[in-house]
Amino acid sequence: MFEPVLTSFVREPNSFTLDVALGHGAYEGLRKALTMAPAQVIETVKASGVRGRGGAGFPAGMKWGFVPKDSPKPKYVCCNADESEPGTFKDHVLMERNPHLVLEGCAISCFAIGAKVSYIYIRGEFHHVADVLESAIAEARARGYLGQNIFGSGFDCDIFVHRGAGAYEAGEESALLESLEGKRAQPRLRPPFPAVVGLYGCPTVINNVETLANVPAIITKGPEWFAALGPDKNGGPKLYCISGHVERPGVYEATMRTTVRQLINDYAGGIRKGRTLKAVIPGGSSTPVMLPNAIDCEASYDGIAKAGSMLGSAAMIVMDDTTCMVWAAANLIHFYRHESCGKCTPCREGADWMLKILLKIERGEGEMRDLKLLESVANNITGKTLCPFGDAEVAPVLSTLQHFRHEYEAHIREGRCPLPAEWRCGGGGH
Ligand SMILES: Cc1cc2nc3c(=O)[nH]c(=O)nc-3n(C[C@H](O)[C@H](O)[C@H](O)COP(=O)(O)O)c2cc1C
Ligand code: SF4
Description:
By secondary structure, this protein is an alpha/beta fold.
């Protein structure tokens, strides 16, 4: 039976305080890391195979290894706590209920790459969580777990919370760096990558909150333990955010051997009110929808990729049979149109056009040729933008067109949403 690692005591009263965290072994990973050579810490994280939990699944140890060791410039660790992808709410739980785990991960990462400062870039709307982090930092500093000469090792480390600009795009790593520097959160051209030219032009590691929170246990329990928790190349514990039409939405910790079906049925209590599953978005709004016949795959990076979608931020948005898929796509594109940073034309203009066409179809005013136009607009965004936002925003459109074309066509043929009246817009379903 899998014992939670990241959320083992988050339900305890005052779990966010240093005393409670110390009772559960907090900062033991940092203590051990400081007895190792920085290169050895990087090798340990590499050997664990831990993959980035922010969306792309890039191996964290490899990323740390890209930071040039001989650079005379200061180095930085940025913890990406922007968490703005629709359906994603896991980092929030870690920061609010187990902040010392996140701080410990940041400090170990700093030690490994030779940084003395880490910034936690937190979503602007997370006022309360930012306060929890600030208090945790003050507590850790006052008791010598952060600051000067930690554990008498000679290692200095400070962590600062930077409240974000309230934009989804600010979570894209290079836009995050711009925002941290006080500029508009718009992406940079790459290469050079942040590991070489990052914050203030200095080598910078950017990792997701959950990625960094995995590091202390990798150090204390060893990389083999971590890797063996999950399937090959998909090791470690994983947080899943399950939302939508389930009985018990929430954040659940499991291993990546768990299937999507088990997460929905066993963890989240199954589809609400005994209804049937229509589709699931497995990894946040930017990942393609999956059909019920595909959900027996492992909820891992590779398992979901084989099933035709992506694990992304592990945000499963579950939709039952009352959901109009044209409305669902329009709803998501409404978000993307609003959040496009506007720097490149295909993304900025394309989102607007996709939304116009989707709303026209949803209103029952669509024509069959609109489907071709919709596909063409989406295909002219894919791979033609400065950052992955462009590819993200076409996923809801292209995947619903692929799997639910009949529903689009029925809207056009019937001049209205084909679902029963009580499930249509303004009704019970959407
Ligand atoms: C539009 C957009 C928004 C993103 N938002 C976040 C976010 O809120 N949190 C996050 O960790 N990564 C986010 N990412 C991914 C980051 O660019 C980056 O890959 C990640 O922070 C790297 O950390 P990881 O390797 O630990 O996953 C976003 C990417 C894009 C394109
Ligand atoms: S793809 Fe969209 S979000 Fe990314 S840089 Fe271009 S306009 Fe901005």
